[in-house]
Amino acid sequence: MAERPGRGESIGAVANGIADDDPRLAFIYEEAVRGLTHQQSVVENMNTRAGSLIFATAFANSLLGSAALSNGLGLWDWIAVALLFGIGGLIVFMLWPYHQYAFRFDPEELLEQYVDGDRPATMSAMRRALALRIKADMAGNWRIIQRLRVALQIALFFLLLDILAWLFAIAGV
């Protein structure tokens, strides 16, 4: 006859006399998932900013470029066009879908590793292992995010220089 769980324990929470659901591990796992979710929103925010950069670049270049090019091509015009291509290249880098983010687990892999094996893992063991895996995934994601952040900052700086170059071209400096 199976032992009935004590007060505060759920059925299946005791395996081989060892408590299965350590609330500390549950908290740590939830915090790890929250951190990964936040990181995913940062990536989505960067993509949104890249889209806004496309609009700002197109607007500034169409407005200022048409006025500047009406006087012919000068040094500042060529600098502005070169900066435009630089901005375009950085935007392509930011939006290109080659980045290998890790925001999810593979269900088949989880089943093989934690459920279908000879000794299925307890919830606490799963949470511990997955929290550590999330930490490693976040570190890998962070390297990509940092490169994208730097590319965005450079592109914004190029946009400022691009606008200045068009203004100098219009002024005939």
Shape: rod-shaped
User: Major β-sheet, in short?
Assistant: 2 strands, antiparallel
Strand order of the largest sheet: 1-2
Category by helix and strand content = mainly alpha
Distance between the termini: 93 Å
What does this entry show, briefly?
The protein has 173 residues and is mainly α.
Tell me about this structure.
The chain is mostly helical. Helices cover 73% and strands 2% of the residues. The protein contains 4 helices and 2 strands, in the order ββαααα. The chain has a two-stranded antiparallel ribbon with strand order 1-2. Strand 1 (14-15) and strand 2 form a beta hairpin. Helix 1 runs antiparallel to helix 2, helix 1 (23-69) packs parallel to helix 4 and helix 2 runs antiparallel to helix 4. Residues 1-18 have low confidence and may be disordered.
List strands and helices in order, with pairings.
Blueprint: E1 14-15, E2 18-19, H1 23-69, H2 75-95, H3 107-115, H4 123-171
Antiparallel strand pairs: 1-2
Helix pairs in contact: 1-2, 1-4, 2-4
Observed structural traits:
about 170 residues; mainly alpha; two-stranded antiparallel sheet; 2 strands
